[in-house]
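Please, structure for the following, as tokens.
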Amino acid sequence: MIPQYLVDFSLQDLPRVETDVIVIGVGIAGLFTAIKASKQNRVIMITKKSLMDSNTRYAQGGIAAVIAEDDSPAYHRDDTLTAGAGLCSEDAVNVLVHEGPEGVQQLIKMGTEFDLENGEFALTKEGAHSHRRILHAHGDATGYEIVRALSEKAKANSKIDIWDDHFVIDLITHNNECIGVLAQRPDGQRVFVQGKATILSSGGAGQLYRYTTNPDVATGDGIAMAYRAGAYIQDMEFIQFHPTSLCYPGAPRFLISEAVRGEGAYLRNIKGERFMDKYHHQLELAPRDVVARAIINEMEETKSTFVYLDITHESEALIKHRFPTIYEYCLQFGLDMTTDWIPVAPAAHYTMGGVKTDLNGETNITRLFACGEVSSTGVHGANRLASNSLSEAIVFGRRIIERINTLMPQSLSYDDLSYTEDRHDAPIQAIVERRLKLQKVMVRYVGLRRDATGLKKGLEEFKRQLPIYHARLTKREEYEYANMLTCATLVTESALWREESRGAHYREDYPERDDSQWHKHTLCRRNHGMTEERIVHV
């Protein structure tokens, strides 16, 4: 049984800091909401590393928004719904496609410089998009440019207090209301931060897998702490694997953007054969789950650990101009995109599920909001459309702040709140080893292809680790492992529950999509187990 809190505490014995809005995380969701919130509120922004450590920083492809005259919100909506395989919230998607362009304008006002061609936005196309609608910056460094611009604005804002190297251990709740957070300072001291609203923008859980495009910080902390607090966690079985991460000896699993295929790159197996025509009519621009499984199939048939991405038929000038970051990175390992085929393989990339919210980013816990990858707004359904994630963060971030500005300040004092658990003193050895084992279990049993036998084995492995929740935890690595174990369990249970294949969730024992039985969301809530929520289209 997972307890409500990872550590014991008594609020009256802790230092207290009061503010209006608490923002957890520093990706596009955290930075954007903090800046918007600061117009009417004092903000404390908490990050476990620094401002430049987030998934947003590594986003290459760009941000999707309807800008071109031949495009329309209706086209963007249809593409999103198609990719989402029947599980998108149509209301949430409508919000995204209609409010996305204004969100882009707000990013520009905050200092983001998107690439231009002849005075117009340079738009590209990515997999499963019907039109060119992806804005990018510095070719393939869109995320870095957005974080740069927003970070500079946040640091210069006197109403935003940035806490680097602080770890949020848990959300503090009272009568299903979030009153603040319990955080640990760099020196190990714990502090209670009280606020009228708390925004989770802590990113996804890519580190559940050994091979991921995500940074080390993506350990699912926000999802896990929201689960412990009693929030609904939705659709955790849908983990998106990016089809093309660099797979080369000595190199990290660096993301090779979908935009490379958008600009005409081919996928070839180790025999040099193009193969996507066997799997989908859109070839290399098929939805990500289709491309990723096709690559795995080719790897197995040819007994290889990778396939090739080939863009050598395009001009050297185009490649260097459009993909300077990827070009330079590959060059570090002796790979020249202009002349060499790049070895790639799938890697965990994006958590489609997360903390369930409404159209204002609000959870079922009063005063608790979620924004960005940590949330499940309903936009992504069973399979996120490329470059919709950055759009989602700004669109719903703005809505969250509009809702927060209507909240009344808290009037209660919570000095008497405390929590104690019968915790054992046994030292927690080899957290690094435990983390690696968890990642291997997830790759083996809860990866791109799943079945009941493997999923049950995975759950058995995770249940053996349950005593971690009843040990005395003191270090960031220990908290992270406990959070990863929570998320791994939620993903595995949800994947076992959903007896069909849909979007990013593929069951070899149930290979077909089954709308008659499974056109519904999976919901997890602490003390309530797995439930379901049918989708009703009015």
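Residues 425-511 form a domain with the Methane Monooxygenase Hydroxylase; Chain G, domain 1 fold (CATH 1.20.58.100). The mean pLDDT is 93.
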